[in-house]
Amino acid sequence: SQTIHQWPATLVQPVGSPLSLECTVEGTSNPNLYWYRQAAGRGLQLLFYSIGIGQISSEVPQNLSASRPQDRQFILSSKKLLLSDSGFYLCAWTQGSYNEQFFGPGTRLTVL
Amino acid sequence: GQQVMQIPQYQHVQEGEDFTTYCNSSTTLSNIQWYKQRPGGHPVFLIQLVKSGEVKKQKRLTFQFGEAKKNSSLHITATQTTDVGTYFCAGPNQAGTALIFGKGTTLSVSS
């Protein structure tokens, strides 16, 4: 069966510090991968998606970046965090764009 | 740009009452999906509707896809405290590469 992992689960970082969040999927190959951000009590904002290794599409201009170094690994990064980067970061995968998405447990990031 | 809107944003009901959330897309959708996010959790897929006018049921939950494939609804009969959470609808973007989520309806239930 397929599983999706995210780490860390929670993170507190100072403004201006770098960020690296990792997402890995097991039990499937060539998934579509997605990064979302959810502000407290708000909806899901799509940040990046990837349909293959090295292929990244950005939905929202910001100080975040994403990379897909391996088929089942998706990384979200920032060189310098802003206060507004605080939120709940969710990684998701799907097999084919029109199918249901499976979400990871998420990372709660607080930037102070 | 393409948008998916949901109403209401919040809904509080007494246990046993019914609940409905509505979803409207600015464009015709090839399918619509519904997800539930429990407090503190991550979204979990509930169902996908594909056909115009489709109606699907999961126990006390009834999902409908409009004839024009631009709107959808989720109806919960006789809510229970386990129904608490945020319900999202989502539809594919025009390119078919990602889902566009509505902002969700947060349901609270008091016993």
The protein's oligomeric status is heterodimer
Order of helices and strands of chain B: EEEEEEEEEEE
Globally, the shape of chain B reads globular
The radius of gyration of chain B is 13 Å
- Percent strand of chain B equals over 45%
Describe this structure in words.
The complex is a heterodimer of chains A (112) and B (111). Chain A has strands at 3-7, 10-13, 19-26, 32-38, 45-52, 55-58, 64-70, 73-78, 87-94, 102-103, 107-111. With 112 residues, chain A is mainly β. In chain A, β5 (45-52) and β6 form a beta hairpin. Chain B is an all-beta fold and 111 residues long. In chain B, 0% of the residues lie in helices and 54% in strands. Chain B has no helices and 11 strands. In chain B, strands 2, 4, 5, 9, 10 and 11 form a 6-stranded mixed β-sheet that branches. Chain B has a 5-stranded antiparallel β-sheet with strand order 1-3-8-7-6, with no helix packed on it. In chain B, a hairpin with a 2-residue loop joins β6 (55-58) and β7 (61-65). Chain B starts with a strand and ends with a strand. The mean pLDDT of chain B is 96. Chain A binds chain B through residues 32, 34, 41-44, 46, 49, 51, 57, 59, 90, 92, 97-106, and chain B through 30-31, 33, 35, 41-45, 48, 88, 90, 92, 96-104, 106.
